[in-house]
Specification:
Pfam families: KilA-N. With about 270 residues, the chain is an alpha+beta fold. The chain has two domains: about 120 residues, no CATH class; about 130 residues, no CATH class. The protein contains twelve helices and five strands. The two termini are about 25 Å apart.
Length: about 270
């Protein structure tokens, strides 16, 4: 769950089944802090609201109940007509609106519906809400992009270490020997790409937190992921450490020349 601030009001958002939902209870509080639920009920009494909600459900919800919806739509707009978010969901099987009671409850709506409700409350509020929501999504995409790049390296590292385990480490060794081989193999990549071992980096940068790879830029991370896959292949082919280091260094030089000039890489850097 994330909160965004719109016109000095905190509005919560959360993921439900991978879709973005926004608290329309918080949106209603922009108009009336005390009677927010009544504002939502008044919106649900509107015939245009019911038609909009029904159309959204037909487009997005295979389990929506059209017969029950038609009965509700026929009564919508009458003086005697009453409707709430909870009642709407129970009768029609709607998924676009979620209403729960309790301390951490409230009424949430899919972003498409929440923006429509915000427009009914205040056009100004809707415009600022869309702007802040887009900013939130940009931050999420930025973080997602970085996570994907880091996870790609981690996945390739698993391939890399499995190849070491299956092809380099002798059958009978103690744990310290195993750890040494892993560290040694990791430093082959460090030397090929960064020109130094992890220990040398740490000694020359004693105040830095993390390891040498934590300070790699986007181009270096992409290249490192490729080197890990190649090193695993070279290990399978039985190449010695010395030969692998020379090959990996040549690949690193060629790939970095290409990546440094790649406009897409520059775009990713700008997003960091």
């Amino acid at each position: 769950m994330d909160n965004i601030t719109v016109l000095n009001k905190s509005i919560s958002t959360k993921k439900i089944n991978q879709d973005d939902y926004i608290s329309i209870t918080d949106i209603a509080k922009y108009k009336d802090e005390v009677d927010a639920n009544d504002i939502i009920k008044n919106w649900f009494r509107n015939r245009n609201t019911i038609e909009f909600l029904g159309l959204w459900e037909k487009l997005n919800n295979a389990d929506f109940k059209p017969v029950e919806f038609d009965l509700i739509k026929n009564d919508a707009g009458l003086n005697s007509f009453t409707m709430s978010a909870k009642k709407w969901c129970e009768k029609t099987g709607a998924i676009g609106v979620i209403s729960k009671s309790g301390r951490y409850g409230g009424t949430y709506a899919h972003k498409d519906i929440a923006f429509e409700f915000a427009s009914w409350v205040s056009v100004e509020l809707k415009l600022y809400l869309i702007k802040e929501f887009q900013r939130l999504k940009e931050e999420e995409y930025k973080q997602l992009g970085w996570d994907i790049k880091r996870n790609l390296t981690k996945i390739n590292y698993r391939i890399h270490t499995d190849a070491i385990k299956n092809n380099i480490i002798p059958n009978i060794v103690n744990q310290s020997q195993i750890n040494y081989v892993y560290a040694s193999e990791a430093d082959i990549l460090n030397i090929a790409l960064f020109g130094q071992t992890a220990k040398e980096f740490k000694e020359s940068n004693p105040t830095n937190k993390g390891n040498i790879r934590d300070y790699a830029d986007v181009s270096q991370l992409v290249c490192l992921a490729n080197l890990e896959s190649l090193n695993a292949l070279f290990i399978e082919e039985g190449l010695s450490q010395a030969k692998r280091l020379i090959k990996l260094n040549q690949v690193a030089i060629n790939q970095m020349k290409i990546l440094v000039d790649d406009k897409n890489i520059e775009y990713l850097k700008a997003k960091e």
